[in-house]
Amino acid sequence: MKKNKGAVVGAMILLFFIITSALAPVIAPYPINEMNFEDSLQGPSMAHWLGTDEFGRDIWTRMLYGGRVSLLMGLFAVTLSGTIGVILGVLAGYYRKLDIYIMQFIDILMTFPSLLMAIAIVAVLGVGLTNAMIAVAISVVPSFVRVVRGSVLSIRETEYVEASRAIGVKNWKIICKHILPNVASPIIILATLEFGGSILSAAALSFLGLGAQPPNPEWGALVFVGKSFLSQAWWMTLFPGLAIMLVVLGFNLLGDGLRDALDPRSK
Amino acid sequence: MNQPLLSVKNLKTYFPIKKSLFNKRHHFVKAVDGISFEVNEGETLGIVGESGCGKSTMGRSILRLIEPTEGSIKFKGNEVTTLKQTDLRKMRKDMQIVFQDPYASLNPKMTVGAILGEALATHQLGQSAKERKEKVKELLSKVGLSSNHIGRFPHEFSGGQRQRIGIARAIAVNPSIIIADEPVSALDVSVQAQILNLFQDLKETLGLTYIFIAHDLSVVKHVSDRIGVMYLGKIVELSDKKQLFQQPLHPYTQALMSAVPSLDPDIKKERIILTGDLPSPSNPPTGCAFHTRCKFGKAVCVHVIPRETEVAPGRFVKCHMYDKEHRADFF
Description:
The complex is a heterodimer. Chain A has ten helices and no strands. By secondary structure, chain A is mainly α. By secondary structure, chain B is α/β, with parallel strands linked by helices. Chain B has a single domain (about 5-95, about 175-330), classed as Rossmann fold (3-Layer(aba) Sandwich). Helices cover about 30% and strands about 20% of the residues of chain B. Chain B is built from ten helices and twelve strands. In chain B, about 40% of the residues are buried. The model of chain B has no long low-confidence stretch (mean pLDDT about 90). Classes of the chains: A mainly alpha, B alpha/beta. The interface between A and B is medium-sized, with 17 and 29 residues.
């Protein structure tokens, strides 16, 4: 890891956002929903580091709390899509008869741009934070399935899997003990990369008014509210937008670093 | 002779190749094309042939790691090809395989103890984890490894040591027959000898039967009692080792024998050079598959598939030269 500066920078960015979000109640200078009309639409100052919004609420405070929502959304979306994706990918890769059905289904999912599909799913399920998370998760599933299936296909043909079959080991044991441990590293890398992507998609949904609803301070929602005041208060959109960008960048840097670190060929 | 331990009759393994969506005419790669032989308890049957002739596919088909297309495999009198999955799993305890590449045949994420323990646990050999650990240590010493290797990962071993682990895995379940699929061809010569000796020792102490697949004639000569020579998915000659080396009958066997280097520089041998490549098993030559490269080839070889002829007791050849019906064409 020492050689990989990008991954270290990425990890540090992420650590900063994770720690500040986790400690939000402790370090936030103001109560989250405290309105103060005298201070509305103030620019960045010593009292309000990142300025205030149209109700005089402190942007820095709201971003700290918003980070919790955004990061949890990413975590939830990646966990859900990763679980579904790994299960479908292993089934498609290991049981060749299921392959065509699962992959046809995944190919159909992939014909829609992921954000468009997320919007469609929210339209069906209804607007809200949870539904936005589910929509994002479903739109990420195809990439997991494809990566896992590909890895499983190559592992299942190895001689050590054949040896286990020759011994008479049951299929599910072969999957748990031989296949999954050997496809773990691509899954970890993809999960890291998709974490950033999920946060971005979730923020995009919130920005379109389909995810987190104001006054929930999710970063995408903050940008959404701020855009109405773009000409008077640039700080309302710039700082939450910057936070989204940095977190996504952090995950991408870390994911690229992990890919290099976990690839045996690069050693 | 009593009943043979393993008897294979007319075994065929074809792999379909899809031409296109609309052309439904089936083409096949005939990897194993009608093989029959018997293996008696306690003997070693060597199988030789050049790469791509279907040796490994045959070994895997007998174990049903690849499903055979046609034919019958009788093991201890029971038909293997029709076994259900659960019965097949039980049968696997009796038939094992050692693979060619010791670098690919061990899971890199599992310790030696876990690899061997899996084989024991699958067939409930050893009641507790502790008991199995003792058995694993015993297995390691049987194959010439130290019992404190138990916690190590495959990458910490050399090729020869890895192959020993592969052998330990095969003998862990007390099989009666082991199919050794080119077990020494990935090793260097000095290590080859050690592993071959290990096979011999285990055969004596455990009373094993081997089907020993190789492309190296000197290796097969060293370990086998009988030898089958394969060409394009068929066994063209099956014979006792001594007879085969003294007087090879099939033209293909003769060509193989002439390629064996001799230790005595004074012996002048006629080297038979085969021209051309091994024909494609998806589109094998008509008649005798070897006629494209055979120096004795006659018209009959192009059109008629040679029958199996028993020229002497236990000695089978598939060649028109030894078939009474067509003999006259040659001499």
